[in-house]
Amino acid sequence: MSLTLAILVPLLGALALALLRLPETAARWLAVAVSAVPLALLLPVWAGFDTGSGAPAFQAVSEVPWVPSLGVAWRVGVDGISLSLALMSALLFIAAIAWPADVQGRARQYYAWFLFLQGVSLGLFLVLDLLLFYVFFDLSLVGMYFLIGRWGHGDAQAAALKFFVYTLAGSLALLLAILGLVLAHAPLTFDMRTLIAAQPLAGTTLYGGLVLLGFAVGFGIKTPLFPFHTWLPPAHVDAPGPASAILAGVLLKMGTYGLVRLPLSMMAETFARWALVLAIVAVVSILWGSLVAFGQRNMKRRIAYTSVNHMGYAVLGIAVAGALTGTAAAEARQLALTGAVVEMIAHGLITGALFLIAGSFWQRAQDYDLKSYGGLAGIAPRLTAATIVASFASLGLPGLAGFVAEFQIFAGTFAVYPWLAAVGLLGILITAALFLTLVQDLFFGPLPERHRRRFPDLDARETAVLGVLLVLVVGIGVYPRWLLDLVDAGTAAVIAGAP
Amino acid sequence: MPIGDILPEIAVLLTAVVVLLTAAFTPQRTHGLCAGLALAGLAVAGWLVTRQTGADRLTFHGVWALDDASRWGRLMILAATAAVIPLCPRWFATDRRHGELYAVLLFSALGAMGLAAAADLLQVVICVLLSSVTGYTLAAWHRDWAPSVEAGMKYFLVGALANVLLVLGVALLVGLLGDPGFPAMAAALAAPGVGSPLLLTGAALAVVGLAFKLGAVPAHTWMPDVAEGAPAPMAAFLTVVPKIGAAVALARLVSLVPPDALALRPVVAAVSVATMTVGNLGALGQDDVRRLLGWSSVSQSGYALMAVTVVGLTDAALPALMLFLAAYAVANLTAFAVVVHLRGLTDRAAWAGLATERPWTAIAFVVAVLSLVGIPPLAGFFGKLTLFLAALDGAYVWLAVAAVANTVVSLAYYLRVVAPMVFAAPPQAPRATLGRLTAATVAAGLLLTVGLGLAAEAGFAAAEGMTLLPVQGSSR
């Protein structure tokens, strides 16, 4: 029940904002209040979540029939993976909505689209029905399209169009793959639990391979994986800061979460056959993303490309987790999968924070060029501190969240694909270089004349939002147990569920 | 004669006559009355169709099918025609022949109804002709306005050619199979060794003849012109109603052919892919919203033909066709209703800022085109979902992949209209509308587009095990 409400309350809030003629401040406060409801609903679910070894994989389940003749129903429920991602998303949405943004005189619409996006994003993580999963996957595109197109800057409409068309292509590939998977099971059902237990494509080679290809393309575009990442930089650069944070922090996770929940769980045998290919693509993404990011002078483009790099780590962990079936190297595979999930959460918090920071740079100077800044450490100490913590977390400094994730991924990968892990580690090196130069360009060296007069530090609201995100980043890095217990419960079930 | 079996058609015919007489003997300013009469007649006819619940059968010596497909098709035609009528009174208020319009509209709907029920090649021909002749008139109704006349002329020329091909195909089929009746044709086609290049030619020509009514390749060229040039309410009618009738007739024809007797399904599949691709490519560069909707209507015919392709290969084909057509009809009529409500506003640039100026009208249009794309949970999503399911189940995977690629392309041109509506600033002078009646139609379309999606289960349940005589008989 509380999961259903966590999805519906933001959607109803969006409707209310669209219909009621509220002034800007009221719309803002209503949006912040509504956006906090899902987190308040999910925290008790977390508290009541049984992580014991005998506990059911999916908990807090409820089901209401919707289209019984197709085997479609409103099914919600969480395991350790989806609950932790939903919690992170719920928090990041509060941060993005509370972030002071330039709403260009259309506050109601701006906040309504954000709440809509919050509802469908949480819906994607919380549902246990493939068709609903697809519905939310698609609807997230609609919400993001309007946010980028209306409140973006630069060539926002072209970026929004490219984003929508490109990712719709991915989601339709996903739809075909879902239908191919569902049709292989009789009777027709879209219930994820049934399909995970049935493994309908076991024993097929060509057919199963094609369905997996559909999933790989669909989720690969969303994640994004090389070579399907080209929609990402323009969408990020031209989107408003909070929308970028959501795009990177929540929407990209839909791709990696989908990889875990659908192909890895529902067609483990086929997945294992192709896992090496996926792992290689992931390593290419890691290297490509970091190298291209290093070459960017535009700070938002640079952060955007590090997303390609970081999501590459997550996909590498997922590929390793599915590389073998049965009990072979089960511990290493679970380690890699746990690392991948923690990477998703850490990336959500860290990159979310980085994009919000990039947004505040734009609001202060309408400029993303790294070379036009410098020496800001002296006049904006809070901004400097926040950026440095987020950057160091992103490059994987021990004691921060990124390290926990990447350590586990690479530890798991060394057990299964040692040489791929060795190549992938190069990515961490390049990432370190690119973040250090970013920090150096922005905060040290001479302060340009035009910023000397007026470059305000983070205000109270910005400091509070970033503070919460970065405290969590440090918290996960220093004492990850509270998160790992939850995630491990989910990943253990996925690894054990494979035949 | 079992007159009772065609009572709905008789009701439409009598209504048309009454409307014609009323129009002839009342002053022009009271012709709005004819709209009311036509609506009442359509309501009666619809009620009569729902009363035809008896056993599935072929009546009138086997030329007229009373089965689920025929009932669904005719109900959709009646409903779509009824949806067009409220768009007309203000649009044609100053037209000298305002009242007669409704009579012609009803005759045209009658032709489409006959197509949906046709179980005989000769009846197919007659109904195509009835639907076409009235269609030309409706397209060229504004005879003082060059684009309207041009649309009618083009429609007529393409139609004349297509009808000749249809008759040629029918002649070949009748000559080779010995009978124009569908049951006898089905029996002859089931005999071993009946397939021949000549027979395939005949069947393919018949497909082309019906493709004209569908607005499918190779006889699609009239569709964008009619959508642009015909009076906007008639464009709404002509892009929807003949399509429903022709799709059912074509599905019935294809169902007669056993999959291994004649390679007709690959022909239909080729037409399907060509249609969706050509329609989408044509729409890509359009700056004229009506013309764009015309091209999109072509591509939507291509999707509908996916279901026709797999008729007889999977039980899911017929329900998919009907649900897709219903979803298409609702969304397309809503989009055109918005155009009519905005007094035919058709330049893409002139739609700038509509979302700010008239949010609900803009929302209705955006929802309609997103439904045409197939974004969940709107009606169009379930239409496309069942199409994909049917195509995959019928082992036409490549067809589903082609449809997916086309869907992606289609999003681009729909968004070309949506983007200025939502992102640009509105002009200084507010845009005029056509009044309450069209606003109500737009609102009803919006509700249906969303509601049919959320209540999809009702449609799926009703469409399950749908019958298509003479081959897919009732199992009840």
UniProtKB/TrEMBL annotation, chain A:
Pfam families: Proton_antipo_M (PF00361). It is a multi-pass membrane protein. Keywords: Membrane, Transmembrane, Transmembrane helix. This is NADH dehydrogenase subunit M. Its main location: membrane. GO terms for biological process: ATP synthesis coupled electron transport; electron transport coupled proton transport. It comes from the Bacteria. It comes from Caenispirillum bisanense. NCBIfam families: NDH_I_M. The chain crosses the membrane at residues 80-99, 111-137, 163-184, 196-221, 271-291, 303-324, 344-362, 383-404, 416-439, 460-479. Residues 129-431 form the NADH:quinone oxidoreductase/Mrp antiporter transmembrane domain.
From TrEMBL, chain B:
InterPro entries: NADH-Q_OxRdtase_suN/2, ND/Mrp_TM. Its main location: membrane. Keywords: Cell membrane, Membrane, NAD, Quinone, Translocase, Transmembrane, Transmembrane helix, Transport, Ubiquinone. Coiled coil: none annotated. GO terms for biological process: ATP synthesis coupled electron transport. It comes from the Bacteria. Residues 118-409 form the NADH:quinone oxidoreductase/Mrp antiporter transmembrane domain. One of its GO terms (cellular component) is endomembrane system. It holds the Pfam family Proton_antipo_M. It is a multi-pass membrane protein. Belongs to the complex I subunit 2 family. NDH-1 shuttles electrons from NADH, via FMN and iron-sulfur (Fe-S) centers, to quinones in the respiratory chain. The immediate electron acceptor for the enzyme in this species is believed to be ubiquinone. Couples the redox reaction to proton translocation (for every two electrons transferred, four hydrogen ions are translocated across the cytoplasmic membrane), and thus conserves the redox energy in a proton gradient. This is NADH-quinone oxidoreductase subunit N. It comes from Caenispirillum bisanense. The gene is nuoN.
